[in-house]
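Please decode residue identities from the backbone states below.
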């Protein structure tokens, strides 16, 4: 008579709720830390309307403050690419 072999039973992977809970809490805290200051900055910037914001965008100091990080990124990314930092 032929031997009966038992099929292998693969267990369904269980969801690790503790891991996902901690990941969710971490994401919520990170979003809170990033979004609350950003929202506050935009609310304060536009509290007197759009016109003061547009006037400030034409100010040379504001243009320099915007251009400087862009310029540093343009320089820094190729340097990091070359040196592998």
């Amino acid at each position: 008579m032929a031997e009966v072999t038992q099929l292998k039973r693969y267990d369904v992977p269980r969801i690790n709720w503790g891991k996902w809970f901690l990941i969710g809490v971490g994401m919520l805290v990170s979003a809170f830390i990033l979004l609350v200051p950003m929202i506050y900055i935009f609310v304060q910037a536009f509290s007197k309307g759009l016109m003061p914001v547009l006037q400030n965008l034409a100010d040379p100091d504001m243009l320099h403050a915007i251009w400087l990080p862009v310029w540093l990124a343009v320089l820094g990314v190729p340097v990091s690419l070359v040196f592998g930092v």
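Observation: Residues 17-45 form the longest helix (29 residues).
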